[in-house]
Amino acid sequence: MLAELACFKQKCGARFPIDEPIYNCRTCGALLEVSFRNGHIHAEQWKKTWRERRISNEVYDQSGVWRYRELLPFDGYHRQAVSLREGNTPLLNAPRAAEYANLQHLTFKHQGFNPTGSFKDNGMTCGVTQALRLGKKRVACVSTGNTSASMAAYASAAGLDSIVFIPHGNISYGKLAQALEYGARTLQVEANFDQILALVRVLAERLGIYLLNSINPFRIEGQKTIIFEMMDQRDWNPPDWIVLPGGNLGNTSAFGKALRELRDLGLISVIPRLAVIQAEGASPFYDFMRNGGAFRSQPDPHTLATAIKIGDPVSWPKAFQEIEVSKGVVEKVSEQEIADAKAIIGRCGIGCEPASAATLAGIKKLTLAGVISESDDVIAVLTGNVLKDPDYIYRYHTGQLKDPEGGNIESRFGNKPIVAPNDADAIARILES
């Protein structure tokens, strides 16, 4: 399908070539999105083709992103794409988590199975491929962790220089280690995420660097494929709910766009409801949806779930549209609720980073409120791998985890390691007790 960049504001309607390196409308300043001019659609044939590609040895068929290239804005350029076999993430049944959340059944779509351990890889393969198409030599992002790890890996695979800007002291070492290992030049800036993003946008324009945060519409295009793959795995039968964490709201934008496109193409019949879960200390989108009026950023966001520690999400206008279209909801959860939900997910043998666990915490809250019914078909998206933030896990299970204000988080589902002597009889007594 032929594609172009379109202003997100319908009243503006400005259009731009797909190969123009811009992130906002040059006419009104609004966000951009990829718009397709549909040709003749072969929905059932596409479904058959996508299923057959799963057993192909061709490199771009093995990617859970490029497998769905008919719905991506690259029109034959996919053979130059930068791929690390991203996507291909499982749907996992989680009966213990379902019971915790008062559901009969719950499924996790676990993006932590991606090459760098998070959903960012789905978007980054498209973002870096677009950088190559534009002839760029350097790429950059502002990140609290996962974006930096993903961009560094894909940039290195593409032979590009990568520059990572992170808030000083506000990143998990598990994530920072990835950016360093993959060769990114890393700058720790004395500011928060939102302040740094404004700074980097100025630098990108001045130095000709291609910006790969979720303001980039090609990142959103790649993240759409999470939904394409999810529906494919379910034989194109949509669930009642798709629940996801909310930080910069790029995934909310991508998921909603994907669902609308699939419906309009006749690939699914109905759009599932979206539920976006934010941390209490970083919940400007929740406040906006609850209180109405003008959107207000949160100058000093705080949460241990660093992947969603964002007070001024750039994608909120797109996310607002997708919540409205899907008749979705936005909820917020406490640090204690996130920590407990994370421990429960671990007891399912699955594991995830803290931001991911906001989904289960939010589902529990929404079922108790009667918003989600116990019989509803619910898929929760886990965005990152359990090893992204190992210090958090250790502190929780040993009773040492504190919230951003220094208050204690109870280890309600703790699993503290036991110190034992070098004595078989003593260890046997411990194991029998």
Task: Write a concise keyword list for the protein shown above.
433 residues, alpha/beta, Rossmann fold, 6-stranded mixed sheet, 15 helices, 14% strand
Radius of gyration: 21 Å
- Largest sheet geometry: 6 strands, mixed
Helical content, roughly?
25-40%
The stretches of 5 or more residues where confidence is low (pLDDT under 50) are none
Class from helix and strand fractions: alpha/beta
CATH level-1 class of the domain at 91-114 and 217-397: Alpha Beta
End-to-end Cα distance: 65 Å
* The CATH architecture of the domain at 91-114 and 217-397: 3-Layer(aba) Sandwich
CATH domain topology of the domain at 91-114 and 217-397: Rossmann fold
**Strand proportion:** 5-15%
Mean pLDDT comes to 94
SSE arrangement, N to C: EEEHHEHEHEHEHEHEHEHEHHEHHEHH
How many distinct beta strands?
13
Order of strands in the sheet with the most strands?
Answer: 4-5-13-10-11-12
Tally of DSSP helical segments: 15
C-alpha geometry: globular
